[in-house]
């Protein structure tokens, strides 16, 4: 005869209540012992798991600490032994390198040129195309082709481009301003 889960649960509870007090205490004691044993087992397992997962990072950090201490001792010895002449020579070399870096003119990258053009456009300007050519001297020409809503939008776009640091000149043919609205334009920009 098969019992359903609720019927089995009720019969088990009823059976448990039918047990004498001594057996109830023994069952309760056995239950607590099993619970304590399982808790200790899980706690031990958790400790072993934590030890296994944390030990590599502990060993790496202790190794780094040893290396750092050795490096600090070496630096202390070297700084004590280093002469003033060596330090001045190193400082002079660093000064020359910084002067060279200041003299070096940074070249703007292609994506920066494209960003400079597209960031300055407004919603009244649509850019249809960009063409970038590199000259023999290393400078670059950027041709911008697009459509402006009106002359004022085109003129303000050109003025903003003229103020951009990366551009040495911005040339707009006068014919671009012939139409009053929906102006197809082309702008030639020389990058620095």
Please provide a written account of the structure.
The protein has 192 residues and is an alpha+beta fold. The protein has two domains: 1-104, no CATH class; 110-191, Alpha-Beta Plaits. 61% of the residues lie in helices and 19% in strands. It contains five helices and four strands, in the order ααααββαββ. It has helices spanning 5-18, 21-81, 84-103, 110-119, 151-162; strands spanning 125-134, 140-150, 167-171, 181-191. A four-stranded antiparallel beta sheet has the order 1-2-4-3. A hairpin with a 5-residue loop joins strand 1 (125-134) and strand 2 (140-150). The longest helix has 61 residues, at 21-81.
Short structural summary:
This protein is α+β, with helices and mostly antiparallel strands and 192 residues long. 61% of the residues lie in helices and 19% in strands.
Supply database-style keywords.
alpha+beta; 2 domains; 192 residues; four-stranded antiparallel β-sheet; Alpha-Beta Plaits; single chain
Instruction: Report the count of strand segments.
Output: 4
- Summed up, the domain count is 2
**Count of helical regions:** 5
Biggest beta sheet summary: 4 strands, antiparallel
Q: What class would the helix/strand composition place it in?
A: alpha+beta
Q: What would the principal axes of the Cα set say about the shape?
A: flat
Strand share of the residues?
A: 15-25%
Return the string of H and E elements.
HHHHEEHEE
Helix content: 55-70%
Physical arrangement of strands within the biggest beta sheet: 1-2-4-3
């Amino acid at each position: 005869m098969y019992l359903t889960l609720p019927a089995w649960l009720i019969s088990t509870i009823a059976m448990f209540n039918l047990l004498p007090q001594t057996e109830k205490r023994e069952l309760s004691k056995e239950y607590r012992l099993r619970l304590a044993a399982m808790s200790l087992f899980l706690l031990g397992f958790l400790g072993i798991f934590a030890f296994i997962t944390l030990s590599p990072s502990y060993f790496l950090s202790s190794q780094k600490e040893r290396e750092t201490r050795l490096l600090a001792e070496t630096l202390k010895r070297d700084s004590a032994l280093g002469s003033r002449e060596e330090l001045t020579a190193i400082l002079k070399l660093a000064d020359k390198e910084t002067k060279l870096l200041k003299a070096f003119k940074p070249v703007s990258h292609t994506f920066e040129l494209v960003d400079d053009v597209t960031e300055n456009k407004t919603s009244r300007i649509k850019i249809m195309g960009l063409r970038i050519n590199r000259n023999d001297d290393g400078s670059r020409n950027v041709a911008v082709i697009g459509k402006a809503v009106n002359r004022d939008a085109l003129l303000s776009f050109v003025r903003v481009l003229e103020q951009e640091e990366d551009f040495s000149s911005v040339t707009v043919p006068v014919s671009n301003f012939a139409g009053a609205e929906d102006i197809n334009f082309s702008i030639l920009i020389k990058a620095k």
